[in-house]
Amino acid sequence: MRSFRLLHTADWHLGQTLHGIPRDAEHERFLDWLIDRIGEHDVDALVIAGDVFDGQNPPIPALALFYRFVARAKALHPRLDIVVVAGNHDSASRLEAPSPLMTEMGVRVIGTLPSSTDGMFDPSPLIVPLRDADGAVAARCVAMPYLRPSDLPAVEEAEDIDPLIEGVRRLYAQAWAGGRGRCRPGEALILTGHCYMRGGALSELSERKILGGNLHALPVDIFPEDAAYVALGHLHRAQAVGGRQEVRYSGSPIPLALDEEPYPHQVMLAEFAAGRLVGHEALRVPRHVTIHRVVEATPEAALERLKRLELDRALPRDAWPFLEVTVTLPEPRPALRDEVEAVLAGRPVRLLKLAVRLTGSGQTLGDSAPPVDLASLDPEEVFRRLYRRSHEGDPDPDLLAAFHELLTGVQETM
Predict the structure, then answer these.
(1) Considering only CA atoms, which of 162, 254, 153 is closest in space to residue 203?
(2) Is 69 exposed, middle or buried (0-12, 13-18, 19+ CB in 10 A)?
(3) CATH code for the structural domain at 291-358
């Protein structure tokens, strides 16, 4: 009998823009690629561990991408089980709205925590059976969505207990126990979570702090040792957690910030037999749009490197590379952007960010100046100190002359 295969992905962020540039073309190609991998690897189940969309009110093209993907995946692979949980970027109610229709298609969407008639948490609706190629249940997935502080049970404060972490632990324990109780011999217990785990590598530019911030990162022992696999979302860098190979972030399929360019963007293929994880493989997602990051010590070096940048003029516009340029500036260079844009004019590349690294002391006036009487401060000295905060040395004569001209004009109007 063939083993059971699950594809784990998360953090699609459909509808995202990067410095004002829509990512729809990149997402569309990723979703086409994902459908091909489902067929190539005879995947039995797909788990999307949160942040399907980039915002609470996703734009129409993003919604269309998602529903088109679901329709195509089920049309091409009718027996494929799909489980989708909400992340912190998603609107839980909006994601769940089409659930009656999706459930009929074999797609389970979990946005919020279910409760019983008495208002207590009821994990039963979170437990999704996943079937193998023969139609037999091979795994039980406990589809836990992103937990907001309002979802958590009240926990009495104690010196050695973090109420938020303890609240999550209790909810997870209840959910996992429900899933474990449904598992028959030979069935794998698969868990999901959209959360920040202790020790995880965080992308500062694109990942929101959740559940009270990094001080409330969850310990890996929240997940039981008998879990065959834990499919996580939220962190965009693919990684295992706490040394446990079965507890994993799949990572995002595309770089969601410029600093994520080096990440191994991928989805995880996990294989199970007799209820246990027997293998896992990272499937790297092809990069539709290249990111070039140019970092140089001088403007001249940066401009020269931009001139030598190898670019493919045959690329369609939606595949033109993104470009970030960072330059060290020992003195002001007001025309730097114009110089960079002139070098790039007519070339198939999109400049997203031009950043400068200043070489001054960084000190405020209060840090750099000894206590003096305000009346004794000389405007030119204040200007020089402000200049040295960002740049090396003193302002050149032309800049000083412009300052004095401005100062004279202000003084004459007083």
Answers:
(1) 254
(2) buried
(3) 3.30.160
Look at residue 63 and give its three-state secondary structure.
helix
Helices (H) and strands (E) in the chain, counts: 10, 17
Q: How far apart are CA 281 and CA 283, in angstroms?
A: 6
293, 351 Cβ separation under 8 angstroms: no
For 385, other C-beta atoms within 10 Å of its C-beta total 18
CATH of the structural domain 4-284, one choice from 3.90.190.20, 3.40.50.150, 3.60.21.10, 3.80.10.10: 3.60.21.10
For the stretch 9-51, pLDDT in tens is 999 999 999 999 999 999 999 999 999 999 999 999 999 999 9
Structural domain boundaries of the chain? 4-284, 291-358, 376-412
Contact status, residue 195 vs residue 146, Cβ threshold 8 Å = yes
pLDDT (tens digit per residue) in 338-391: 999 999 999 999 999 999 888 765 555 555 555 555 455 667 667 777 776 777
Q: Which residues of 386-407 are buried (b: 16+ CB within 10 A; e: fewer)?
A: ebbbbbeeebeeeeeeebeeee
pTM recorded for the entire structure: 0.84
Question: Cβ distance 66 to 104 under 8 Å?
Answer: no
Q: Do 110 and 85 touch, CB atoms closer than 8 A? A: yes
Question: Tokens 């749009």 sit at which residue?
Answer: 289
